[in-house]
Amino acid sequence: PLCVSVQNDRYLILTAQLLDAKESAASAKLKRDKNGQRMAQDRIRIIQQEMKPLEAHPMFNSAIKLTDTPKEEKKPLPVLEAKDNLNFNLFEKLQLPAQPPPQ
Question: What share of the chain has pLDDT > 70, as a percent?
């Protein structure tokens, strides 16, 4: 039983490291840091490879397994009763007058 506890604890540590690596990869992507992305992806792959045999163990506690959740669930916007009140001025402001072609 002690061995199983150690394995489950190791799995939790790896899960935390995996989340950190994913966050690092997302940050690198936002910064357009290709090298940072590559390093984070390599780290993610290594962590996942180490997690796989722990998950396959017959005494593994599946309750601690991290499941992929949607990043952000988009909530449906409330439907407006009076559709005439919709304001499309924003779109009208974005339409710039056509500029004459350069000569």
Answer: 62
